[in-house]
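hey m, so remember when u said the tokens were messed up on ur end? i reran from scratch. heres the input so u can diff it against urs
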Amino acid sequence: MADNDNHSPSKADIDKQFAELYRRHLRDVYSYSYYRVGNHHDAEDLTEQTFLQAYRHFERALRESHGRPLRPWLIRIAHNLAANFYRDRSRKPESAIEDAGMISAPHTTEALVEGREELKTILEGVAQLPEDRREALIMRFALGMDNREIARALGRTDGATKVLLHRAIRQLEGMVTESTAETVPETVPPTDKA
């Protein structure tokens, strides 16, 4: 019983804390993984791997966190696993069944189509961003992480993260504007003064 008196939590306490961490952050880790890999099956695998790895190092993370939230730590694990996933995939390419696209009921609402086209353009732009900018945008807008959490997850300073997000947003805005200009037909006919 003396071991528990030395501020060393019991295995049951650690498991309980981890279960709470899992419950609280499962959606964030899955969402991040999905945005990184683009399909549900691989996102589920990455999420599972993230939490398995987190569990292995949970006690140390608790000691070293000094009370800070562990979400950035989890996202960092998912980030590293996704990088490994892409590295491994480039070594042995395969065609996924998800490439065939999802079948869904057709919608005829013009606004819905326009919204989907805009979303498609934005997602295509995000995919073209450099990895660090893409990561920062996913963490900020898909996961709702604040700058400090993103900085911890990416191993950057708060200031560098703020600059990174600003540049990512500006670059994405430019890409979307350029893409929109290419697809929107000229509405004013040219005047011919000959």
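this time it looks ok to me. Residues 1-5, 95-108 have pLDDT under 50 and may be disordered. if urs says something different then somethings off w ur setup not the seq
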